């Protein structure tokens, strides 16, 4: 049974068996991944997969089910499961299936050129990055990750109200982590990049960047534990933003899970802070012309010079707040129900380079990496206490790497304490972007 | 799930270019997830995951491919495409498949798929009411119920042919307390390798009550001081510290390539005499337990550290080649989408002789971590971090005020050397562990322990 036949039959049977509205969401993808260890292919992985999510309005409630087994027998499984799930819901918000937006942007997230790069060329590139990283400095003792991955996927959304959308996307990801050793001191440094342009990947430049990132962490010193002015490097800032993104979700404000409840139109951050979401930002690789409900996406300002302009909405939360949806319904997979998330959220850049920001700081800490974000950051209270790597700034210069430390504060205070944004806006592979930020102060505890 | 003759053909196609080992992993999994918030069942989804992973070894090279196409032609093509990664050679040998019947260690009395949603929902509502009614400052309760029935079939070119059913049930409770200005949360998430009987028999007054109590306690807590302190870590989920600080460093994933501080140190003293560290996948119905691992090997009790001496690692079939040793029944993967590797199951510090009262009474000035949050580690350096969900100051041998926002950082190998008291009250707690072969159910466990010095990062100065 082909997937098209399956979809048609499923929708038809759903309408015949008591569903008032119904939608199918199908995704198929292919991937390739290679990991190199000391010049040899250590692991080589390929995949071809597909799965289908179904949801439908049954007795006024939206039931969900999914399957990865595309065969005739699965139709009954999906219909019966979705009905059983609809039966236990307590919602009374008139949620329904969307008939479609008037127009959609036609941004392209698929590169034919990337799709045709031969496997051998990709393997040569990643091997060469490993070799050049080792050659860069004798203190590079091993690469604990040296990986290249590419993927392509196609999503299809169809419903009984005539909506039929599809989109293709591909990309290539490189992730390298180098281990360096000097005497007894051992440090790591990593590099990651996601792109659709194979030709922009330069093995020499990548090897240099990852080796220098790791080497710079050597020679660590302890500094006293207290509050310091902070410069958050673009990548550390983007990962903190990603961890706290749920505070901007209307689903969380409506359930009393975000302190931004009732704050639209109010000043929530410093004047220098502007937060945007752009579904097709050229520097970000992830993107989409429609959201998880089929609503057309568009570029929006979430926070404008410190003022909260809007929360992130799907159709259900928008209806509850009496506003228009912002196109932020997110269906991370056919296996999920709908949630709310941005596509490419980023902090607007300022004018000064990272070097200029450092030069203008008398004493402080330059944070280059954060870990423990899944457990040390509470989106409900805004409190965070996170392990960090970074450098001591003294007299406008990097003085030394700092021993393992934690930085602690509250995200809502942090937003108000942002003094300046640098010009170095960069996106993480996951779709969050930031320039480096100067922050008034955070508590720093050094091991 | 798939005919034996087809599996044999796939194993053979996988070795057509000179590979020396091939394996097929078939997974057919049913999942139910329900969420309750604001007193309402808001989400409920059911699904079926179905796919096949094919793995080939050629010396120290590992090729993995997976597909959701279960037709014979689709599977043979996938195997042949994967085999192309190996550059020529004679056909490998396939041993005839010998069906192995395993005696399940984990009794399941109520398969979740046979239990109607209404009964699951009833437990969720009850837990919600207990947490909500705990204190008027509890403003929100979020519950997540999940059950999974994972049927796997594993066959390889050495003749292995085994199937297994793993059943998981978990109820996670998050309570949010607010005084109108600030908000704090409390969490508890009991889980087991068991059916609905586990959910129905849960002591909800304890679990939902504790989630609510933690949230309210943290609302009243002071900011945590920063600095170096003796730290007392309570039993059960407290074991997450050694899961991060040394468990990951004992996995062949990092040991085989010398990326661990514990590599090449078998027989060396790595901890004080009072520390014995064990990974045991056979504990009946525990969250991290399995009958067989994801390579079809029987799970076992692996002693990692005994009386302070490093005894062993957690090893999978592929890394066993690089390390020239035997696999330990520790190979795991989240699903057919992941190439399996060595992972923890139920890992714990064996009980010692001190009573919890003695440990607290003998601590003059320190931090008592009653409940832990999660953490992470850089396996290459051993540097770890994790958050404390509920912490107290200890003053003159007594538990003092509650403090919030505590994060512990340090180096695993060094912290292990600083364990100076081990309690007698071993217990296990359920968690999810994320690593290269995906997110897996694991137990972490320990009795109450004390570490003479850990760096505590808080928001309040020294």
Task: Please characterize this protein's 3D structure.
The complex is a heterodimer of chains A (447) and B (462). Chain A has helices at residues 3-16, 73-88, 112-115, 119-136, 203-216, 234-244, 250-254, 315-321, 354-359, 373-376, 411-416; strands spanning 19-37, 40-58, 61-67, 140-159, 164-182, 185-195, 226-232, 275-277, 300-304, 307-308, 329-330, 339-340, 345-347, 363-371, 383-394, 397-401, 405-410, 418-421, 426-427, 432-434, 437-446. Chain A is an alpha+beta fold and 447 residues long. With 462 residues, chain B is of the alpha+beta class. Chain B is globular. The mean pLDDT of chain B is 95. At the A-B interface, β2, β3, α2, β6 and α10 of A face β1, β2, β3, α2 and α3 of B. β2 (40-58) of chain A pairs parallel with β3 (61-67) of chain B, so a sheet runs across the interface.
Question: Quick summary of this structure?
Answer:
The complex is a heterodimer of chains A (447) and B (462). Chain A is an alpha+beta fold. Chain A is built from eleven helices and 21 strands.
Largest β-sheet summary of chain B = 8 strands, mixed
Write down how many β-strands of chain B occur, each being a DSSP E stretch of 2 or more residues. Answer: 24
Low-confidence stretches of chain B: none
As residue ranges, the low-confidence spans of chain A are: none
User: What oligomeric arrangement do these chains adopt?
Assistant: heterodimer
Based on secondary structure, the structural category of chain B is alpha+beta
Output the structural class of chain A: alpha+beta
Number of domains of chain A: 3
What is this structure's SSE topology?
The complex is a heterodimer of chains A (447) and B (462).
Chain A: H1 3-16, E1 19-37, E2 40-58, E3 61-67, H2 73-88, H3 112-115, H4 119-136, E4 140-159, E5 164-182, E6 185-195, H5 203-216, E7 226-232, H6 234-244, H7 250-254, E8 275-277, E9 300-304, E10 307-308, H8 315-321, E11 329-330, E12 339-340, E13 345-347, H9 354-359, E14 363-371, H10 373-376, E15 383-394, E16 397-401, E17 405-410, H11 411-416, E18 418-421, E19 426-427, E20 432-434, E21 437-446
Parallel strand pairs in A: 7-14, 13-20
Antiparallel strand pairs in A: 1-2, 1-4, 2-3, 4-5, 5-6, 7-21, 8-9, 8-13, 9-10, 11-12, 14-15, 15-16, 15-17, 17-21, 18-21, 19-20
Chain B: H1 4-14, E1 21-37, E2 40-58, E3 61-67, H2 72-83, E4 98-100, H3 117-132, E5 138-156, E6 160-178, E7 183-188, E8 191-192, H4 196-200, H5 204-220, E9 222-223, E10 227-233, H6 240-247, H7 252-255, E11 277-280, E12 301-306, E13 309-310, H8 317-323, E14 331-332, E15 341-342, E16 346-349, H9 356-361, E17 365-378, E18 383-395, E19 398-404, E20 407-411, H10 412-417, E21 419-422, E22 427-435, E23 438-446, E24 449-457
Parallel strand pairs in B: 4-6, 9-19, 10-17, 16-23
Antiparallel strand pairs in B: 1-2, 1-5, 2-3, 5-6, 6-7, 6-8, 10-24, 11-12, 11-16, 12-13, 14-15, 17-18, 18-19, 18-20, 20-24, 21-24, 22-23
Helix pairs in contact in B: 1-2, 3-5
